[in-house]
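[step 3/7] fold_predict: job queued, chain A
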Amino acid sequence: MTTEDETFDYIIIGAGAAGAVLARRLAEDSRSTVCVLESGPPDRHPYLHVPAGFIKVLFDPDVTWQFSSEATAHTGGRRIPLPQGRTLGGSTSINGLVYNRGQREDFDEWADRGNRGWSFADVLPYFRRSERWEGPDPANVRGRDGPMPVTPIDWRHPVCEAFLAGARELGMPTNPDYNGATQTGAGYFQRTIHRGWRMSTARTFLRPVRANGNVVVRTNAQVVRIVFSGTRARGVEYVHAKGTTPVRTVSARKEVIVCAGAINTPKLLQLSGIGPGPLLQSLGIPVVAALPGVGKNLRDHFSVRVVARAKNVTTINELSRAPRLWAQVARWVMKQPSILALSPSLVHYFWHSRPGLTRPDLQGVFSPASYREGYVGVLDTFPGMTCGVWQHRPASAGTVEVRSRDPLEAPRIQPNYLAEEDDRRVLLDGVRLARRLLETQALSAYVDGEAMPGPQVTRDDELLDFIRRVGVSSYHLNGTARMGPASDAGSVVDAELRVRGTAGLRVVDASVMPTIPSANTCAATMMIAEKAADMIRASRD
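[step 4/7] structure written:
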């Protein structure tokens, strides 16, 4: 049974990093009506708003898609968990809270690939539009008036200070603003945390306009198909997230905009008849537009962590247990610096895997905390610290493919982590760098030996085996509906994010990234939505 619903100017599928931003901007025009369809529930759970709740919600199926990769030899035969946000705010309600734009060369490369209007100079105003940076801005490139608060870390720990001193021993400069003039160096992360609370896009962008008469937000509404008249998108069908009937339809006068993320966006496109012709035909899905690039070009950052035991200091491992935890809760309630208001990683380093590189190809993270091997979110019982690392721009690319016509079945996800030999070499060099950072003189007063992988692991083959056994996703999935010129046969959308071979349909999320940014992807996804809003408004006028 299908139930006819209302008609809106715009239908936005997904209320995450892109969808919530886009809804806010389109709703600012009182002439436009906007319907936002979010597959997950409202963001009411307190763990979605307390930064330390990150580890409680990341693997909670009530507010996340519990996707996983296909196993390969390069992941030690393991399926890698790939959780994605499924609530208002999407992954901005469950992520690690780091705000990182990336390197200017990332976006210049997008433009060099034929995507006019996507150079760093073109996108910088949109980064600035969304953010409200509360720290110094000597390079004059930060936004001060946007809806998203971005704050310097206000919690200090002696081990973090020692780590930064050790980085200087290895020649890394201290960089107070990696989103400023240069990314190179080490320093403290900037976070989407304000006065102790997580700042998701639901809270900062969507909530202020939900009272407007021209915005309707529907939660627990899983879109199962885009409805076409010929090749023009006319609306969508959706079901209640906890069941399959009745099917409801919503119509769009102007555009359907897919903001469902790098896994669900290609899945929905394929189910709707947009994707590789042979795949769709093999499943009996009528082809609306044969686009071989839908679901291809999947990229992610594959990360590895090195753990050391700590001495002569209290780490987060102990602070997170009673009775010390109660003191931290009290500090948080009184708006004082507390572990409840921290991002999982506190310190960054952006550096080179080998001499001679012109820009960093590694991102590293550090925290005075450590997690038990083989246990997700369980802190070690001993005092510990963690130094993690991933390759900025991996060459390995994968796929997302629907398995059947069933819209509730998870797609087949194969990131092909470490498939390229150069990716293995760069990450191996990155792990060796992480070890050197933990062995500096500055940290020696606090390091009580390496716990993982352990000092007995020294040869390249042993370290690669370790990487394959413990490496995980950084949850920076992107590229599966990539932007490109008409001459790029694998592109899915043009430079204005319109889906090729269709009308009235765009993709606005991390799927459109032609190459992976040298960064966590949340900030760039918000930027894409800001820019898309201007494009959509221009096409309306």
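[step 5/7] annotate
The two ends are 37 Å apart (CA to CA).
The first helix runs from residue 19 to 27.
exit 0
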